[in-house]
Structure formats: structure tokens, C-alpha cells
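Hey Z.,

So I finally got round to the glutamine thing we talked about over coffee. Here's the setup:
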Amino acid sequence: MTKYIFVTGGVTSSLGKGIISASLAKLLQARGYRVTIQKFDPYINIDPGTLNPYEHGECYVTEDGAETDLDLGHYERFLNVPTSQANNITTGRIYQNVINKEREGAYLGKTVQVIPHITDEIKRNVRILGQDNKYDIVITELGGTVGDIESLPYIEAVRQLRWELGSSSLVIHLTLIPFLAAAGELKTKPTQHSVKMLLEYGIQPDILVCRTEHHLSVDIRKKIALFCNVNINAVIESIDASTIYDVPLLMLKEQLDHIVLGKLKLPHKNEPDLESWKDFLGRLKNPTAEVTIGLVGKYVELPDAYKSIIESFIHAGAKNECKVIVRCVHSESINAENVADRFKGLHGVLVAPGFGSRGIDGKIEAIQYVRENNVPFFGICLGMQCAVIEYGRNVLGLIDAHSTEINEETPNPVISMMEEQKKIKNKGGTMRLGSYTCDLKKGTKAAAIYGKLQITERHRHRYEFNNDYLEQYEKSGMVASGINPDNNLVEIIELKNHPFFVAGQFHPELKSTVDNPHPLFVNFVAASLSHSKKGLNK
Ligand code: GLN
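And the result:
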């Protein structure tokens, strides 16, 4: 029978429930359990797909094309197992399902209410992942902080599920133990209050994970245990770490997995096998070289907007035993006069995905510079589209080449909207989303990098390379090295006479994990490393 773990948060947001959930899942997986993680988000949007990155950071796309919370990226990076739509549910989706059922007449004349109808729908979505014996353990993370009005139906659903599932479930409460510098002390009161609030809602947490900047003494642990009705060994210290990838080992040291298995009455099986994880950490922490890579985008003030790209560089750096310093360059700040100066000291440049016209000119300038100066270049989605526009304008002489996303009237629409997109009016969930197959051309860089001729990658866009121009581009040296076999869409372009100039219409950053660093990132970092060794661009 599947076991369920619920993770709630107290005191403040941003304590890292996603990382704690992913770390626990990693430890349980490393002991041989099949684990998945689910996140409930208490906002009314159906999914984060329509949210501005400034609001919500990156939108993470799953294999099945769900637009989801960026925590799902952490789950995949830690577990190396794909997630799906079922792993991220918002309040909007819960209500939408209930309202649709009401319209179908499924409630037989009853008054539809938060309890039981909304809570039943939440419970149904928790249990969906436990069906078909796919997982031994389902970890469900509740977004928000205990006490938020929006979280109440979720907390109530967890109360009911705890009652129904008994010892097949447990609750982990993640809380903060602040350090008051003036008093020179760690303070437990906020934790006591947040546990008290959970108790008011009828939930006794089984385990407390305490975020802290300083080690918890035995006395502090005893005090927390006493006031919050948990065993002292269930008071887990979660001290600030230098990298999120340390957290599984810190949780192992605190025996979080051991305590969880004991409470769920599951056999401990083997000690967790974390050899490859430790090997990764060893490489990450002992780099033998260093490269600086420019990340050109328009959300650079907010690194969460590019979360998966930044994590992919960490994986690729470790693989190359090289520290990757990512220097963000605001695309709006780049122009023909300052680009050489702005890119001084960069050994490679990645042009980021994005939407709309803001910062486009800077991206195009950036690409012209790296193309002409042989600086390794990697373009993702909008980054690839800008590379096509730049090449059209400056090499093919199509001076007004553009994407119809930016200029609908351009005489040379080298990037244009896909036919099937033209009739779509709604914005939510209507892009080309999720995993698609791509055939790689023999003898190209892409084929060498992937080491095979067919791949799948995840997409999120409406515009595409316009195949009317393909022949012209290929003749002059920009090769379409990846093509979708079902509809002939160009998925990868590369330049023949350049050390590394590769760009994809898809999002490789969504598939890079600790166990499986993405080959495009690994090779781009390697190319940047050899560029740095040439001593150019100082
Ligand atoms: N705005 C572009 C499109 O919709 C690129 C999207 C992206 O970079 N994810 O095609």
C-alpha cells in the first residue's frame, strides 16, 4: 500500500519545502523505494503558465506538457524521474474540476461547498499518484504557510487524510528557528506558535524540520520537542547549506529518512546508496578550472526566472570539473557600442528564452558579436530565434528579417507562428508544450554531442523557424541539425565555421539532472573552457 507524507510550512515562506521534500525523496529512493513528489499551489491561476516570471519565477514544463511550478524542476533534478501534470495542482484547477462536475450535474442537487467538495477533490488528487502501485511513497508539499487563508482547504484535506490513512501517512512541518543577534540566541517561539496553529486545525506534526543558521543544541531540541509534542529525534536540524545539493546528505546525518521509515512502518532496506551523488558533490566542490558564462536575458534581476538554466550549469560544471560562474547581462543594456565591453571576460554566452519585444535588440547584438568573434554561443528557444534573425539580417542580407511575434508585418518573417497556433485565442496552456521527437543530422555537432540520431526534448513556444528560408540558410552555412520528423519543424540550428554555435527551439535545461547532466550544457561548458584557455576575450 502506498504511504503518504505531507510537508507543510510554518513561520515564513521561502524556507525551502521543495528542497527538503526533494532531499527526503532522494534518500528514500537511494534506499530502493519508488518515490514521487507532488506540489499543491494555493493560487487561483489554473497553472503558472500565464504568470509573469517576476511573479512566480520560471515556469517548468513536464514531459506531458504541463506548465508547472519551478519546484518540480528540483524534484526531477534530484530524483532523475520525470514528473507530470498530476504532480502540480493549483487551487484554480481544484475549483475548475469541482465546477465542471457541478455543471455536469454530478452533485445531484446538493449544495456544493468547500467541505466536503473542494476537500474531496484535493484528496482525490493526492490519491491519484498512489494508484496503480506506481509509487511506494508519495510526498505532497503544500504551498504557502500554515495560517494563510488560501491554504486552509489543503490543511483540512490533510487532516482528513491523516485520519483515513492512519499510520500510512505522516506530516512533516518545516519551520524556522531564527537567531536573534542582539540576544545571541536561537528562538523557538515562532515554531511553537506555528505548531499550535496546526494543532488548532487538527494536525499534529510527526516531524519538525527546523531551518536555522546555527546548530541546534540538545537543549533547544528538547524544548522544541516538549512544546510541540514530538520525539526529540524527530526534531531535525536543517542548517543553511552552501549548495542545495548538500541537503540530502545533511538530512541523512540527521536521520530524517530513518525516522520517516520508522513512523511509516516501512522496512529500512539497505543504507541509502548515494555514491553517484557524492561523486557529483566531490566534483562540484573541487573544480580544477573556472569559466565565466554570460546569461543574456531580460529577467536577470530575478535568478529564479532562469532556475533550470542555472542548475544545468551546475551539473555541467561538475561534469567538466570546472566552476561555472554565470554572469547575468541584461539584454536591454546591450547595444552595438558597448557589447565588446559588456562581454569582456566571458568565455561563452547563452541567450535565454523569453517572450515579447523587450530586450530583443540586445539579444541580436549579443549574437552578432559572439558569432563574429568565435565566442561559444548557446541559444535556447527565443535565443535560437534571435540567432536565426541575426544571421538572416547580417549574413543573408535580409536586413528586415524578424519574428512575427515582434513585427507582424516584416517582409522577411524568418520566424513565424505555427499554422495550428494561428486559430488559438486563449493564452493558458495553448503553446506547443511538452516532449517532441527530433531527428539529428549525421555528421553535425548536435549528433556528436548527443551521441545518437534521435532525441526527445521539451518545448514551450508558439513561433518557429520558417521553412521557406531553410534552403537559403543551409546554403550559407547555418545548418538545421535537428528536425522534427512528424512536421519538419527545425529544432536545432548550428554554424559550421564556428567553435560552438548551437541553438535549440526546445528547452534542454528542463531535462538536466544530477545523474544526467544535459549533453548540450556539458559540451557548451567544455567549449567555453577551451575558449578560456586560448586566453581570448580578456
Ligand atoms: N516567444 C517565443 C515563442 O513563443 C519563444 C518562447 C520561449 O523562449 N520559450 O515562440
